[in-house]
Amino acid sequence: MAEVQIVINDIEGNTCDLELEPKIKTFLTEWDLESDFYQKDDTQLVVLKDLSGKDLSTGDGHDDGFWILNLLSKINLEQSDESPGFSLGETGFSNEFYKQLHQIVPDLYIYFNATVLGYGDGYTVCTYSLSPGGWSVKQATLYAWDEDMEEYVREDD
């Protein structure tokens, strides 16, 4: 399997009310996740805040980024607008995991770039939206290097 590098650009909809903290703590314990899964400020909880700017690769082995790759691996094709065109090589968590996470942050979006290493000079811009059965792919746009234009251009242009 080819190595895939992802760079998480942004996360939206990852805030929730302070009252949900006990539910998040139970969720973290049940799924054996790190306590830095969320941060608390004076007015809200921010889930997955530390993922913005994260640079991960499927070739890194099972380091601390494994759970993130596993988190992003479960695609709900029935609710997706398109296919991502690549795989992160993991199975993702169970449907119950995504259902519980969706109850905590129902409007969660993750924006990232994915590059399949060793397969040409291009990358895919992705937008994933959390659904109760995994991630719905809202955008997966491939950009490839155009020698004549000397820039990356959308593959479908």
How would you describe this protein?
The chain is an alpha+beta fold and 157 residues long. The protein has one domain. Helices cover 18% and strands 35% of the residues. The protein contains 3 helices and 9 strands. The chain has helices at residues 21-31, 66-73, 95-104, and strands spanning 4-12, 15-16, 38-40, 45-47, 55-57, 109-116, 122-131, 134-146, 151-154. A 6-stranded antiparallel sheet has the order 5-1-6-7-8-9. Strands 2-4-3 form a 3-stranded antiparallel sheet, with no helix packed on it. β8 (134-146) and β9 form a beta hairpin. α1 packs antiparallel against α3. The longest helix is centred in the first third of the chain and has 11 residues, at 21-31. It is elongated and about 55 Å long. The two termini are 28 Å apart.
Give a quick rundown of the structure.
This protein is of the alpha+beta class. 18% of the residues lie in helices and 35% in strands.
For this entry, give a set of tags:
6-stranded antiparallel sheet; 3 helices; elongated
Write the layout of secondary structure elements.
Elements: E1 4-12, E2 15-16, H1 21-31, E3 38-40, E4 45-47, E5 55-57, H2 66-73, H3 95-104, E6 109-116, E7 122-131, E8 134-146, E9 151-154
Antiparallel strand pairs: 1-5, 1-6, 2-4, 3-4, 6-7, 7-8, 8-9
Helix pairs in contact: 1-3
